[in-house]
């Protein structure tokens, strides 16, 4: 039997509609104030400019404010540091996002780390990562949070489940594994040096692929009845494809996300959620 297709586009649309309602309630509660997202874009990478524009548009659609700080490709470290320091102090800025990658002469990890953890809507600072590791309240990275929401919406039981995450990046794999662990799954993290990767994947009740290799995960790597979340986005001659061989794997799995239309739409939806959450935390309302 073919798997249930987890419709990330529809689920993300519901998250965005909920955030829009919550922003309206926030404005009522706080004398017309609304959450605000500040974006910093250093450099002239066209793809980054599109990502930032999409994030701002999504914020406006749910009634949030946006503030944009474009910096020249030659912007010095000191200039970026100064912008972040100012934004950390502004009461109308609930969340700060420094679009990565930054130009080569800058250190994206260092700059992101200067964002006040209370405004770290990407959830990528050392403080946010530490809070996640400790299981304390904080802002979580958007794409892993989106995957957890997809699993919840698909009614996947995580407690005691074998979860395998393929990929160990700071952006996705590590926080994903941590969220699954906090949900009491038994978690294995795989990477480029993992031996017998196919056998490890076959153990998974929940298999999450974030590698960046088109259709690497084959149907005989997947346990019948598993849930498969495909985070990969690979541009090929046939268009955008995931890390999972979708057509074959959907005949084995119980539930699976497509690419596009699975995990992708969740990232911006959770950026909006994080911005609202940050605004509420800053007002002591969480
Ligand atoms: P990344 O930083 O390049 O990490 C890739 C990971 O895959 C690394 O841990 C690497 O292992 C591992 N890997 C590479 N080749 C492998 C192999 N043959 N077998 C097993 N593991 C292997 O990438 P990322 O930022 O985590 O992103 C991964 C994918 O997810 C990309 O396609 C990206 O576009 C996509 N993504 C999508 C979204 C979204 O939809 N919103 C968000 C984030 C990421 P090592 O650590 O050993 O090198």
Explain how this protein is built.
This protein has 286 residues and is an alpha/beta fold. The chain has two domains: 31-118, Leucine Dehydrogenase, chain A, domain 1 (Rossmann fold), CATH 3.40.50; 142-265, 3-Layer(aba) Sandwich (Rossmann fold). Helices cover 41% and strands 16% of the residues. It is built from ten helices and eleven strands. The strands form three sheets. The chain has a six-stranded parallel β-sheet with strand order 1-11-8-7-5-6. α1 (8-29) packs parallel to α10 (264-282). The N and C termini lie far apart (44 Å). The model has no long low-confidence stretch (mean pLDDT 97). The site of NADP nicotinamide-adenine-dinucleotide phosphate has 25 residues, from α10.
What is the beta-strand fraction? 15-25%
Helical/strand content category: alpha/beta
What overall form do the CA principal axes indicate? globular
**CATH homolog superfamily of the largest domain:** NAD(P)-binding Rossmann-like Domain
Cα distance spanning the termini: 44 Å
Provide the number of structural domains: 2
State the total count of DSSP E strands.
Answer: 11
The low-confidence parts are none
Q: Quick check: average pLDDT?
A: 97
> In CATH terms, what is the architecture of the largest domain?
3-Layer(aba) Sandwich
Estimate the helix proportion, in percent.
Answer: 40-55%
Instruction: Tell me the radius of gyration.
Output: 19 Å
The third-level CATH topology of the largest domain is Rossmann fold
Bound compounds: NADP nicotinamide-adenine-dinucleotide phosphate
